[in-house]
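pinging the channel bc i need a second pair of eyes. not urgent but kinda urgent?? the chain im working w is below, pasted from the shared doc
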Amino acid sequence: MRRTFEELVQEADEVSVAGWDFSWLDGRATERRPSWGYARRLGERMARARAALDVETGGGEVLAGLPTLPPMTVATESWPPNLALAAARLRPRGAWVVADDDEPRLPFADGVFDLVSSRHPVRTWWAEIARVLRPGGTFLSQQIGPRSVAELRDYFMGPREGAADERVLAGEEAESAGLEVLDLRHERLRMEFGDIGAVVYFLRKVIWTVPGFSVERYRDRLRELHELIESEGPFVAHSARVLIEARRPTGQAA
């Protein structure tokens, strides 16, 4: 039996969005994955590292899925529900989970880590990353690219004419912080939302897509989108992903 708009929206508005696990969307939304295989790359580098830091770890999902962690592994997170999830996943693996706020400075001494990673950071603190890396250490990150899921954002908030996105400057910002860019790639990836509940869940979880989103605020637009999906099929958008790997030059003093 087909579920109503109200049923779909209420369910998606009440379910927990803690952590960075999107399995609730299985069978309801899809997103093509980047070709570079971030988790595999990160696993390879973690296996060679002695001391590693994962910034904005979310619920620790990525680190917990890796086969090997360095002897010293630290993860930071600022959102309390995510902190509890990350601690439950990572402490049994011998990793430390540190509560941190959303602004620099990173609470670590200079030149401590030979690997720093971050998957989908809200903002990358390039100078701080360069500071905590050892000479020769590397930063590996998969980031949100410019105009990611713009179709969904524009549906609710209207198109942004000439809007710039600072994340497109990742390579320049890394170099400005004194890092050497080893790899920089961009991809746009097809997404499909199969019902309005998937849209609500995504917007509650990925809060920067439509800032200030709530069901009550956008109920009319949600209902219109529900009817559009029912009549024409999944809503299609495109995510933007950036892979960057950068190194602190060996000649820099720790």
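so The domain at 5-247 is CATH 3.40.50.150 (Rossmann fold). and The chain has a mean pLDDT of 93. — does that match what u expected or am i reading it wrong
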